[in-house]
Known about the structure:
Helices cover about 70% and strands about 0% of the residues. By secondary structure, the protein is mainly α. The chain has three domains: about 20-60; about 65-170, no CATH class; about 195-295, no CATH class. It comes from Microbacterium arthrosphaerae. Keywords: Coiled coil, Signal. This is Phospholipase.
Amino acid sequence: MHSDQSPTSARRPRHRLFVPAVAAGAALAVVTTTALTFASPALAAAAPLAATALASAAAPVPTAGTLRDIRVDAQGTLLDARGALTAAETLTADIAASGLTLAAADTSVDTAALESSIDQLSDLEVVPMLLIPGITADAEAATAAVSAEVADLQESLDAAKAEKAAEEAAAAAAAAAAEAQRQAEAAAAALAAANTPDGAKATARQMAASQYGWGDGQFSCLESLWTKESSWNYQAYNGSSGATGIPQSLPGDKMASFGADWQSNATTQIAWGLDYIQRAYGTPCAAWGHSQATDWY
């Protein structure tokens, strides 16, 4: 029997070509765009939209819960991003206000990428849903980068503040030590001046008037009395009796009731001596009269 088919073509199997929906859609769009370009530029411009529609139809459809989670994640990232930006701005202001020199060469924080992410996340209602996860990831990366810069600069600022505080404390301690030294030297000079005969007399005149109401007449008697006893020498000592100091206290340690420095301070000796005269004789002139009569008082 005669046939138009050759033996080879009779035995060749037939294959069916399967094209995935998305690829088919894309291919169709290319063909359609090419064909429509010659027919109408407007129709050609609409062809990619058709491809997108076909691809979307083939992709899994997000559930309402998934969409909600995407938006919640984006909103949380937005809050974190804004917090990082605020921290950067606050730290920058703190560094400027401190006037300190930081170890870090660059004390600025690069927030350009973070601000861009914040702008994008701030308007989620107009951002296509498919773009939100990518924008969120970019914002998280920018937030982490800025937070790291802030942490490094904060550490540098804290170190500079600690160094300044240590320097100020050292300066304050040095100033306090210098003031203490000055006061000690002034006190030593005042003591040395008060311990001279003239200084002791001036002290005695002032104390007699202010504490006992004794005027110049009484002081004249007092001056004569203690000139006889010790010549107003706070170091005077009677080897035979043990009488000590300007008022010739017997024994000398009686004057300790007016100060532990009774051996080295003329003022302490004078304070004790005036009190003794007031208690024993009433006035310096009465004490002087007794001394003249008995050679002691």
